């Protein structure tokens, strides 16, 4: 059995087991008796019968999971994966909403907000790796930016200045990574690891030496801005157009970086350096300058992700508050195949899993919280294991360039 066949076998076996459990679970409820309410904001709620819904979803999931086993439909594995994932998640939501209202709009709204730092981190990774510089220091950039941004906001009493310093801190840390990786030709993985360790020590020192001794320990958070007219659109208005500034910046950067990468001369040069730096150098492109520029720009974007943690969400700073989101950003980047839109979709999936476990805890669903906390990281392993298909990085990714 080749690698592709083994991947299909593992996926099909797990999917069939999960959906069989869903079908078996549907028998615990009397058809037409137990109900679930799915809330859709201003549009009201929809009532579904729990037993019938779980049975139908389980059957659909099993049918979808066995499709890739048929040789002529092997290429449908990704579609099958998403269909079975949808049936499993829908079953969880229906179960969680038994005899109550499960707010779908609230879930999607929270998913977009929680996806924000992941998407921004993935965009930072794309900017770096499209020029051939591996950046696993995104976690350290986020953590440092969250700390510096909060410190500036606290002492200067201006949250917008805090956001500026957060982005600046990300850029400075990125400059260090560029110097080590591009100029000193240090192993890029080692450079990123050192920066992550440095960030933990630096932010811990700042917190204990300055923040814990400050007169105040919290600041305000960035305001929610409702875009006129658009925020009144049913469902979409609440999810997309009633948000805080960094969420809007994230969505804008996805569009902007996509256009810049694939529609401009800078984007063409960036991609050519990531694929074949020697050829790019031959036609007059300054490989070193472009790598420095992109890594620093990526640092600014990662800095915004750091600001999201301390200035848009909590109004405070705690040790290790980024909680591994920088590494999940890398998984979203790989999931999206180094494309901003793909990374955005990947970030939404991770944000959705995070939002789901938060809502389950709020609703006191009888599921071990440790299992729910594992969800984003389980999805990360699934993505990195290539269950949904192989992702091919830029050819020169991680390869230092030495000009002859």
Give your account of this protein's structure.
The protein is mainly alpha-helical. The chain folds into two domains: 3-99, no CATH class; 105-384, ABC transporter involved in vitamin B12 uptake, BtuC (Orthogonal Bundle). The protein has 15 helices and five strands. It has helices at residues 3-26, 50-66, 77-96, 104-129, 138-156, 159-183, 188-211, 236-240, 245-263, 265-275, 277-282, 287-314, 325-335, 340-362, 369-384, and strands spanning 35-39, 45-49, 101-103, 225-226, 242-243. The strands form two sheets. A three-stranded mixed sheet has the order 2-1-3. It has a two-stranded antiparallel sheet with strand order 4-5. The longest helix has 28 residues, at 287-314. The relative contact order is 0.15. The model has no long low-confidence stretch (mean pLDDT 89).
Please report the total strand number as a whole number.
Answer: 5
* CATH first level of the largest domain: Mainly Alpha
What is the element string, with H for helices and E for strands? Answer: HEEHHEHHHHEHEHHHHHHH
Total helices: the number is: 15
What value does the Rg take, in angstroms? 23 Å
Helix content: 55-70%
Mean pLDDT: 89
Separation of termini?
45 Å
CATH topology of the largest domain: ABC transporter involved in vitamin B12 uptake, BtuC
Structurally, how many domains make up the residues? Answer: 2
Mind describing the biggest β-sheet?
3 strands, mixed
Q: What is the structural class?
A: mainly alpha
Summarize the structure.
The protein contains 15 helices and 5 strands. The chain is mostly helical and 404 residues long. It has 2 domains: 3-99, no CATH class; 105-384, ABC transporter involved in vitamin B12 uptake, BtuC.
């Amino acid at each position: 059995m080749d690698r592709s066949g083994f991947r299909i076998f593992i996926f099909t076996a797990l999917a069939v087991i999960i959906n069989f459990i869903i079908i078996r679970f549907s028998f615990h409820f009397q058809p037409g008796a137990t109900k679930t309410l799915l809330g859709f904001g201003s549009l009201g709620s929809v009532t579904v019968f729990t037993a019938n819904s779980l049975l139908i979803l389980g059957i659909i999931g099993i049918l979808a999971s066995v499709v890739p086993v048929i040789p002529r439909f092997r290429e449908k594995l990704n579609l099958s994966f998403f269909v079975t994932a949808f049936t499993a998640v829908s079953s969880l939501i229906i179960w969680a909403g038994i005899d109550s209202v499960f707010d779908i709009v609230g879930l999607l709204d929270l998913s977009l907000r929680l996806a924000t730092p992941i998407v921004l981190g993935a965009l930072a990774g794309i900017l770096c790796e499209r020029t051939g510089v591996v950046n696993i220091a995104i976690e350290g950039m986020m953590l440092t930016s969250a700390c510096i941004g909060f410190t500036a906001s606290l002492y200067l009493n201006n949250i917008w200045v805090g956001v500026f310093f957060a982005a600046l801190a990300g850029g400075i840390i990125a400059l260090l990574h560029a110097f080590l990786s591009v100029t000193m030709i240090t192993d890029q993985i080692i450079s990123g690891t050192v920066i992550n360790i440095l960030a933990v020590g630096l932010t811990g020192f700042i917190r204990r030496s300055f923040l814990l001794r400050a007169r105040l320990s919290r600041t305000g958070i960035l305001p929610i801005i409702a875009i006129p007219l658009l925020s009144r659109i049913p469902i979409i208005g609440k999810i997309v157009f009633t948000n805080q500034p960094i969420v809007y910046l994230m969505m804008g950067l996805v569009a902007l970086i996509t256009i810049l990468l694939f529609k401009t001369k800078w984007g063409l040069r960036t991609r050519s350096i990531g694929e074949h730096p020697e050829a790019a150098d031959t036609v007059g492109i300054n490989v070193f300058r472009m790598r420095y520029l992109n890594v620093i720009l990526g640092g600014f974007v990662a800095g915004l992700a750091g600001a999201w943690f301390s200035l848009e969400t909590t109004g405070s700073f705690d040790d290790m508050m980024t909680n591994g989101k920088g590494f999940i950003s890398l998984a979203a980047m790989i999931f999206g195949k180094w494309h901003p839109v793909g990374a955005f979709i990947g970030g939404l999936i991770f944000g959705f899993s995070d939002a789901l476990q938060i809502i389950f805890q709020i609703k006191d669903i009888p599921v071990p919280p440790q299992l729910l906390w594992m969800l984003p990281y389980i999805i990360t392993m699934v993505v990195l294991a290539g269950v949904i298909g192989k992702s091919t990085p830029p050819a020169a990714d991680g390869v230092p360039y030495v000009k002859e």
